[in-house]
């Protein structure tokens, strides 16, 4: 009987084992996770869950009973020590678990501040998993002073929650502007204004020099020479793919675990999906840190384990919730040379359309679901309406679909 073992019980791992069963796979399926709870959604952790608007059980991707009912062996609170490729076994908890096909859905790990600048002081947090958010939740007291390091989406989402809960929020971003790595100046301007209107103090072009405190963080010295009194710190300076297990097993790494168009690593019996995997895309190689990619890539691999031979072709989309604004992003904006701003139908709604020459690459839509849906259909279909049409406020969205 064929044996499939999946290491990493997150969105990708859960999606993969469910897809195997939905496609009629009758072999043995084992899912191994380091956390003590079944696979859950991560995006609400730093938003609704932290705000107290979502209970733990509602985070679960599927009820815990799902795994037993579908004959999926679920190992929780268990760390994999090694992969033995020669004998095709996984070593976990002192046990050897045999596999015919192994899938790595190990996700990513947050970058932390170096200990030398106070990164290991009590009261310094990252936002990645349930234990991170549970640990910081008691800090969110009305009037508390929080420093957020990093002006990407994680940092901005944390700032929004803190501001909504009545904290005094300062956010520092070393780059010239927030969201510089992932968005246009227009999108940055939109979110800077939004956060400032909620009382967040945003400092751009300013880095963190050091955190201060005896045992617990109490202050911060910034690169411009200024100092801050702080009660706690949230670090949102990016993530790195979790590749240590694959590296130790001698699997090829290239900005993540390198996979081919099917999802196979340099070992054809080992596959990888989600945040940890880099894959071929438009003549290059990319790694996508998103829920949709984790699901779609994992499901494609499940089918390929069963012999489908499908090439994984992503249709990238992302989202971010901040205050009462829902940002929806379609496509990938790398290489853009022009951004068109288009007002939405409702007050405060807007979309930013990224072009390279006459090619539409991506759309950022803030409280404008219609622009997002039209943009996504166009991008997924390889269509690019003329930039002047998008720029013209008289142009109806339906006309863009026909352009």
From TrEMBL:
- Domain FAD/NAD(P)-binding: where? 2-298
Q: Which UniProt keywords apply?
A: FAD, Flavoprotein, Oxidoreductase
Required co-factor? FAD
Which residue numbers delimit the Reductase C-terminal domain?
317-401
One Pfam family, short name please?
Answer: Reductase_C
InterPro entries noted in UniProt? FAD-oxidoreductase/Apoptosis, FAD/NAD-bd_sf, FAD/NAD-binding_dom, FAD/NAD-linked_Rdtase_dimer_sf, Reductase_C
Q: Does the keyword Signal apply?
A: no
Q: Which domain of life is it from?
A: Bacteria
Task: List the PANTHER family hit by this protein, alphabetically.
Answer: APOPTOSIS-INDUCING FACTOR 1, RIESKE DOMAIN-CONTAINING PROTEIN-RELATED
The protein's name in its UniProt record? FAD-dependent oxidoreductase
Source species? Thalassovita aquimarina
Q: What broad taxonomic lineage does this protein's source fall under?
A: Bacteria, Pseudomonadati, Pseudomonadota, Alphaproteobacteria, Rhodobacterales
């Amino acid at each position: 009987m064929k044996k499939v073992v999946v290491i990493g019980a997150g969105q990708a791992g859960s999606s993969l084992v469910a897809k195997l069963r939905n496609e009629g796979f009758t072999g043995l399926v084992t899912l191994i996770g380091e956390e003590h709870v079944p696979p859950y959604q991560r995006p609400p952790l730093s938003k609704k869950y932290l705000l107290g608007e979502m209970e733990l059980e509602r985070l679960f991707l599927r009820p815990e009973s799902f795994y037993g009912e579908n004959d999926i062996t679920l190992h929780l609170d268990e760390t994999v020590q090694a992969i033995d490729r020669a004998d095709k076994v996984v070593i976990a908890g002192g046990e050897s678990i045999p596999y015919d096909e192994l899938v790595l859905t190990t996700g990513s790990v947050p970058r932390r501040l170096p200990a030398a600048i106070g990164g290991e002081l009590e009261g310094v947090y990252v936002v990645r998993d349930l234990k991170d958010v549970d640990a910081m939740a008691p800090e969110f007291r009305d009037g508390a002073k929080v420093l957020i390091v990093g002006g990407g989406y994680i940092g901005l989402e944390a700032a929004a929650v803190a501001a909504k809960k009545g904290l005094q929020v300062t956010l520092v971003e070393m780059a010239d502007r927030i969201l510089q790595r992932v968005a246009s100046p227009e999108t940055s301007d939109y979110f800077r204004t939004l956060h400032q209107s909620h009382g967040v103090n945003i400092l751009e072009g300013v880095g963190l020099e050091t955190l201060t405190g005896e045992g617990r963080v109490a202050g911060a010295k910034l690169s411009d020479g200024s100092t801050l009194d702080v009660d706690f710190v949230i670090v949102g300076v990016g993530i790195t793919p979790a590749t240590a297990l694959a590296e130790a097993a001698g699997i090829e790494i290239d900005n993540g675990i390198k996979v081919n168009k099917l999802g196979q690593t340099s070992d054809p019996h080992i596959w990888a999906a989600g945040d940890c995997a880099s894959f071929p895309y438009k003549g290059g190689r990319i790694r996508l840190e998103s829920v949709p990619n984790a699901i779609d890539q994992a499901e494609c691999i499940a089918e390929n384990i069963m012999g489908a031979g499908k090439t994984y072709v992503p249709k990238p989309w992302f989202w971010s919730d901040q205050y009462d604004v829902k940002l929806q992003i379609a496509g990938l904006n790398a290489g853009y040379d022009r951004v068109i701003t288009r007002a939405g139908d409702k007050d405060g709604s807007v979309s930013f359309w990224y072009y390279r020459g006459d090619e539409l690459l991506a759309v950022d839509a803030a409280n404008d679901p219609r622009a997002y849906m039209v943009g996504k259909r166009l991008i997924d279909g390889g269509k690019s309406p003329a930039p002047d049409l998008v720029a013209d406020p008289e142009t109806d969205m339906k006309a863009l679909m026909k352009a």
